[in-house]
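Entry, Tuesday afternoon. Goal for today is a structural model of the target with magnesium ion bound, before we commit to ordering more compound. Inputs were pasted exactly as handed over by J.K., no edits. I checked the ligand SMILES twice against the vendor sheet because last time a stereocentre got dropped in transcription.
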Amino acid sequence: MEHFSQTLKQKIAQRDKMLVKDQKRFMKHLFLALEEMRSKGVIHRDLKPDNIMIRKNKGEEECVIIDFGLATFIDALPYLYFRCGTPGFLSPEIANLTNKKEKQQPSSDVFSLGCIFYRM
Ligand SMILES: Nc1ncnc2c1ncn2[C@@H]1O[C@H](COP(=O)(O)OP(=O)(O)OP(=O)(O)O)[C@@H](O)[C@H]1O
Ligand SMILES: [Mg+2]
């Protein structure tokens, strides 16, 4: 019974409605999601407000990561796309990658979360 209303990008666009307590909850849930992905050896590689949807749960808004189109298992070398992401959210270590066989790290997703937090 998922009920998504909008993406985080749309939410950020309506600046005045973004409460600090919502920002805190969103960040907490995003970090928990990354922790879960890390435990499964998965990196998302394209975290940005367009790829996060908001849903209502017991009257409170929470966010959900979507669009795993560029996600990969960390060990699945060589990756289908070795350098990918979105400028503005992309970590410097991925932006500067030259070696196609280099393993990418979950910390690159954490960098993107930092960029998302800044946008909020
Ligand atoms: N699980 C979902 N539940 C509800 N809506 C979704 C879900 N996944 C995607 N959408 C809708 O589809 C849109 C695009 O999804 P997604 O980011 O997965 O695709 P995309 O390949 O990035 O597409 P685009 O290039 O159009 O951004 C989202 O902005 C959202 O409106
Ligand atoms: Mg998308």
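The CA atoms of residues 52 and 65 lie 5 Å apart.
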